[in-house]
Design goal:
The complex is a heterodimer of chains A (143) and B (255). By secondary structure, chain A is mainly α. Chain A has one domain. Chain A has six helices and no strands. The termini of chain A are far apart. With 255 residues, chain B is mainly alpha-helical. Helices cover 67% and strands 5% of the residues of chain B. Chain B has ten helices and three strands; from the N terminus they run ααβββαααααααα. In chain B, strands 1-2-3 form a three-stranded antiparallel sheet. The termini of chain B are far apart. The chains are: A mainly alpha (143), B mainly alpha (255). At the A-B interface, α1, α4, α5 and α6 of A face α3, α5, α9 and α10 of B. Chain A: This is Threonine/serine exporter family protein. Chain A: InterPro entries: ThrE_2, ThrE_Dicarb/AminoAcid_Exp. Chain A: One of its GO terms (biological process) is succinate transport.
Amino acid sequence: MILQLITSFIAAATFCILFNAPRRALLQCGTSGMVGWLVYLLLDKQWDTVIATFFATVVVGVVSQIFARSFKMPVIIFSVGGVITMVPGGMAYDAMRKFVEKDYIDAVQIATQVLMLSGAIATGLVLSEVLGQMFRRKRKQGL
Amino acid sequence: MESTGIISNSSTHEIIDLCLLAGKIMLQSGAETYRVEDTMIRIADALGFPNAHSYVTPTVIVFATSRTEPAKLFRIAERTTDLQKVSEVNDISRRLCERQITAEEARARLGEVDNAAHAYPIWMQIVAAALTGASFTVMFKGSLWDALPALFVSGLGYAAVIYLHRLVQVKFFAEFGAAFLIGLSTFFSVKYGVGREMDKIIIGSVMPLVPGLLITNAVRDLMAGHLVSGLSKGADAFLTAFAIGTGIGLVLSML
């Protein structure tokens, strides 16, 4: 488990280097990736992968908004780092490989899973944005 | 149109040019479609064109300042993901809207951002890709013994894609070649006893090349109503995944 956390941190932070994130954002990127992966691993044990991915993405979105507020950088930097560990890129490759190997049934199955997962991530990100906006509006009304 | 001081010293064409430049940098740096459109319209609004329209797809920007003015078009050939540039353009447009900087300053700064090179040197990107590959191998439940070859194979794969993309301008062949190399080197490393599970090493190593973020962005665009952008990003992602899948599949079927 600890190994998983360390590797997810490294994976998210190094991916952000490939995406040319600002140097001072790398640690936060790694952290949001690690948090996302932790939530995903915990939920994946009991629930379906798609649902686990969805909730993990919502958590990543919220964490990224907190980071974006406190470090004054756009949300996209942290949310990209956060979801990159869950994004179904490896599966997309796997689906295509199955197609090339003429294993069509598996290929379609994996491709559908890719679509569901990316839908879950997209919905999760949008939902966390909506949540952030609601929270901000509420705080404004409260003041 | 009331002149707010800013308009008087920069003509309409320069403002349109400024909006297009900001949009171009954002789009080339992989910002979401709605963000690009939003930024351009905000800049135009701040500089005295409240009725501007902007239509953005992954390959083209169309921008009009009003209903009657002719629209301007800008063609985008290449896109990468560059979060630094996205955040800098964001910053410039915010300051411009808050009147902290003038249009001239904004243009100068946007020019700097446009010409700026990748902040990390290539060797560092390759090291980062290598670490990414090794980490993903462990995350996909591979053992630490598989992470070691994945470290080298993914570094090699990323270096190959950079080099091949310079050699042949077609992205498809660069990715195909890199995937082929990844498959081949994984095969030999397993054959000579470094690493055990070939599948885990391969899937970890292709992670830096694979279009996971692109697929997610495509779905996000579709959900936001940017149908053309969403579908074309999806097609782009499909091609990349196909190139990588074919490259690996070819190696596995040959050996």
